[in-house]
Amino acid sequence: MLLxxxxxxxxxxxxxxxxxxxxxxxADYYLRLKRKFPERSIQQVVIYLKRTSSDLVRQTRYTTSVxxxxxxxxxxxxxxxxxxxxxPGLLPYAVLSxxxxxxxxxxxxxxxxxxxxxxxxxSNLAAATSILAGLELEGQVIKRLMRSPxxxxxxxxxxILLEGRAEGLEVGLLQGRTVEGKTLVLKQLQRKLGSLxxxxxxxxxxxxxxxxxxxxxxxxxxTRIEDLETxxx
Length: 233
Fold this sequence. Notes:
By secondary structure, the chain is an alpha/beta fold. It contains eleven helices and six strands. The strands form two sheets. It has a four-stranded mixed β-sheet with strand order 1-2-3-6, covered by helices on one side. The protein has a two-stranded antiparallel ribbon with strand order 4-5. The chain starts with a strand and ends with a helix. The model is unreliable at 164-169 (pLDDT under 50).
């Protein structure tokens, strides 16, 4: 995920599992971004969502005999729950925090969500909460605690319930990441290349999550619409 301003870029990677290639990937992403935006400062953060004892999630540096590259790592299960409960946009991550009683945390999140007056914001956050809670809690627990109408009406939440507990949560998470990926890649393409034709937009929207991730990397080298057309084939 890339967030940009006129003088800075925030590059964020969300991971559910450890990855021994992460240091190299972050260095590679940094060099690609720096080549395209040499005047901007670049901050990189890897956010691990699911608790693990693997030492890989503690790697914050890529080194070779001639270079060293550092990046920031955040392990959500080490963060205090108050950080997430105090900011609406962070509420979906609260269940993944250091708190030991995950059901109690989810109940507190639901209370906070019910105070949000903007229906769209409330619905989006409820859907994200139900997906991420599946990394820590059983589906029936989530269903019982998230009983307000706006949460039951969330299409993402419904897809999770229909698919069952473990399988549904996995499917819902993948669907949510794919939708988010399409939105982000399309915005980045439009920012870099200008307006896309309906045909190109349709082709990009039909890509799988893996293809979207590959396009997200490739578009850093695009300079013309033709580059995108060639990549899409």
